[in-house]
């Protein structure tokens, strides 16, 4: 399946979970479908870590984990935890209280930098030291490559108004966490207003750059664009990818609407959205 088809499938699955359970945060889920598809289907490698600081896009994360084969029943988990919970396999951090995920991601990125792992270039095995059993004398004729897992952290744009986020931004630069990537879902809306009217966060990218991060802004619904900028890593600098998104993307009645945050989807809107998002 191509990535666009995967994204469509995830979008339909999320719509169905939200419709059947009559749960809100439809807008917040729809804006991250391509972001999470990009990450899990082409960017993240084994041992990399994903943290969603936006705990209210649980439906999308569970649908992705189901598609990856990490969990079997996204519906079951969504019924139990409609905010992201670490009790779900494949999830390391529970979200819900905004502003905390990046601090956790910083700690994990720092720990991963300290516990160096080595990949045997002969057989691909990852080990804690420069040894392997595939070649004579525990060496590898092709040598070893240093492996530092990457940590990706997703944040909402309204969430950037939390002071704690900027302490983490400062910490990441100070510790030169070049294995850390923050992804901002810049949909321009938060729960009760336009983000830049509630408390201005624009220009997001400049703010990160002034804290000595590297980064790019990109189109948040184009998988090739997102993957390109997510793959970038700069030596000794943490990285940010600001994704310009549409809250409620793919659901006409909800697109770029404040109500997409808290309204539940009705039967007619649901059926139309499923039609629009089929392959
Ligand atoms: C600390 C904290 N304050 C308030 C809330 C309530 N709340 C849940 S979602 C949300 C809006 C967040 O907006 P944004 O970060 O832009 O995310 P979006 O829904 O647009 O993806 C708010 C205020 C919360 N979960 N945590
Ligand atoms: Mg937002
Ligand atoms: Zn080997």
Count of spatially separate domains: 1
Provide the β-strand percentage band: 5-15%
Alpha plus pi helix count: 11
* Strand adjacency order, main sheet: 1-5-6-8-7
Structural class: alpha/beta
Give the oligomeric state: single chain
CATH topology: Rossmann fold
Shape descriptor? globular
Short description:
This protein is of the alpha/beta class and 279 residues long.
List the helices and strands and how they pair.
Blueprint: H1 3-21, H2 26-30, H3 33-43, E1 49-52, H4 58-67, H5 74-80, H6 101-114, E2 117-120, E3 126-127, E4 144-147, E5 151-156, H7 163-174, E6 180-186, H8 195-198, H9 204-210, E7 214-219, H10 223-231, E8 239-244, H11 267-276
Parallel strand pairs: 1-5, 5-6, 6-8, 7-8
Antiparallel strand pairs: 2-3, 2-4
Helix pairs in contact: 1-3, 1-4, 1-11, 3-10, 4-5, 6-7
The site of zinc ion (ZN) has 7 residues, from loops.
Task: Sum up the structure in keywords.
single chain, alpha/beta, Rossmann fold, five-stranded parallel sheet, 8 strands, binds thiamine diphosphate, binds magnesium ion, binds zinc ion
């Amino acid at each position: 399946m191509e990535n666009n088809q995967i994204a469509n499938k995830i979008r339909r699955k999320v719509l169905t979970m939200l419709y059947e359970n009559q749960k809100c945060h439809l807008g917040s889920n729809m804006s991250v479908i391509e972001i999470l598809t990009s990450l899990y289907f082409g960017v993240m490698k084994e041992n990399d870590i994903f943290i969603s600081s936006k705990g209210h896009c649980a439906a999308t994360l569970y649908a992705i984990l189901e598609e990856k084969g990490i969990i079997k029943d996204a519906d079951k988990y969504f019924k139990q935890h409609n905010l992201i919970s670490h009790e779900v396999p494949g999830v390391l951090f529970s979200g819900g209280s905004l502003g905390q995920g990046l601090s956790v991601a910083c700690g994990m990125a720092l720990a991963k930098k300290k516990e160096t792992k080595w990949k045997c270039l002969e057989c691909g095995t990852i080990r804690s030291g420069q040894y392997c059993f595939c070649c004579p004398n525990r060496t590898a004729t092709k040598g070893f490559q240093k492996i530092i897992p990457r940590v990706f952290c997703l944040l909402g744009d309204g969430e950037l108004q939390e002071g704690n986020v900027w302490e983490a931004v400062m910490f990441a630069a100070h510790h030169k966490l070049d294995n850390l990537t923050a992804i901002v879902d810049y949909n321009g809306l938060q729960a009760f207003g336009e983000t830049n009217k509630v408390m201005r966060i624009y220009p997001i990218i400049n703010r990160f750059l002034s804290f000595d991060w590297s980064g790019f802004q990109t189109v948040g619904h184009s998988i090739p664009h997102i993957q390109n900028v997510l793959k970038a890593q700069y030596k000794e600098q943490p990285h940010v990818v600001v994704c310009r998104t549409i809250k409620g993307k793919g659901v006409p009645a909800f697109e770029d609407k404040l109500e997409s945050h808290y309204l539940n989807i009705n039967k007619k809107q649901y059926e139309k959205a499923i039609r629009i998002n089929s392959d």
